[in-house]
Design brief:
With 291 residues, this protein is an alpha/beta fold. 42% of the residues lie in helices and 16% in strands. Helix 10 crosses helix 11. The chain is globular. Bound molecules: coenzyme A (COA) and magnesium ion.
Length: 291
């Protein structure tokens, strides 16, 4: 399922969680990791459990998908975070500081132990896959991560700390070279694994023009969704990542033209040569729109 927008919501704030639920995001990520202080983590687990148990009774079509971001596998907190979800239906778990397919398989086994029997295997996983130098070298491995994996995203903040970079953006506000490499490798790693590439956060949440520019560059390059940190970013991301009626009509025309041409490898449409890559591109665009 394509997620245009995934909104981070600190899990220790019931007020923000309520706002997140009504934000229009395709998914909200109840965060137990970096946005929650160590002293508040236990309380946050309780809040998450309460919220998910509570919304089980609400109408699914007005709710975002619910993701929970657990603490990283090397913190010793992951199992306890998952334990708080035992027996509840959660759409997905976000794993920070993933180092490759092995991290996902480990998490997947842990999820299997707490998932309700009637929803066995349904909990999906999205990872943040670029948070250390080491993690970058695992980006080619996700094809063997197993069927739960549905998305790969990337992050520049923890990577910056890991490599000791003074900054991750230049004076023009755009990511500098090491972080652009991480972004590109995340895109390639996701596509190679057959999962959704999801662009990282744009932290400057009052800068709408900056967000639009970053969405546009992400779409240009092949990302199909973006993480958000503030509800105001959600409608912009949703708008930007929704294929326009013109794009959809063009994609449908290409698919129809190939269907009419039978088994043709190449066709002409409106004076343009179209071959297999164009067809696949059109099919993927229609799939993003659920067609
Ligand atoms: N999810 C849900 N609601 C949010 C929100 C979020 N991520 N960020 C802000 N809001 C709410 C605020 O609670 C506030 O609601 P209120 O007026 O009813 O109190 C409203 O939106 C406006 O917020 P604003 O005053 O503009 O921002 P802020 O100073 O309260 O919060 C942040 C700024 C950065 C602390 C906040 O956006 C946030 O917590 N973001 C998520 C951080 C996170 O999860 N990081 C981890 C991943 S990188
Ligand atoms: Mg982090």
């Amino acid at each position: 399922m394509f997620m245009r927008s995934m909104l981070f919501v600190p899990a220790d704030s019931p007020r923000k969680i309520e706002k997140g639920l009504g934000s229009g995001a395709d998914a909200i990520i109840l965060d137990l990791e970096d946005s929650v202080a160590a002293s508040a983590k236990e309380a946050a687990r309780g809040i998450v459990r309460g919220v998910i148990a509570d919304i089980a009774g609400r109408k699914a079509d007005v709710l975002p998908r619910i993701y929970v971001r657990v603490n990283a596998l090397d913190t010793g907190l992951t199992a306890g975070d998952l334990k708080a979800l035992e027996g509840l239906k959660v759409d997905g778990i976000m794993l920070p500081k993933s180092e490759g397919a092995a991290s996902v398989r480990r998490l997947s086994a842990m999820i299997g132990a707490i998932e309700p029997a009637e929803h066995r295997g349904e909990t999906r996983i999205t990872v943040v896959a670029t948070e250390s130098a080491k993690a970058l070298f695992g980006l080619g491995s996700y094809e063997s991560a197993g069927p739960r994996l549905e998305g790969l995203s990337w992050g520049a903040e923890d990577l910056r700390t890991d490599i000791g970079a003074r900054d991750n953006r230049g004076a023009d506000g755009r990511h500098t070279e090491p972080f652009r490499l991480a972004r590109s490798l995340c895109l390639f790693g996701a596509v190679a694994a057959g999962v959704q590439p999801i662009d990282s956060v744009f932290p400057n949440f009052r800068d709408e023009a900056g967000l639009r520019l970053e969405c546009d560059e992400a779409l240009r390059d092949g990302f199909t969704g973006k993480l958000a940190i503030h509800p105001a970013q959600v409608p912009i991301i949703n708008e930007m990542f929704t294929p326009s009626p013109e794009e959809l009509a063009r994609a449908q025309a290409i698919v129809d033209a190939f269907a009419r041409a039978g088994d043709a490898g190449v066709i002409g449409l409106d004076g343009e040569m179209l071959d297999r890559p164009h067809l696949v591109h059109a099919q993927r665009l229609l799939a993003r729109a659920g067609r």
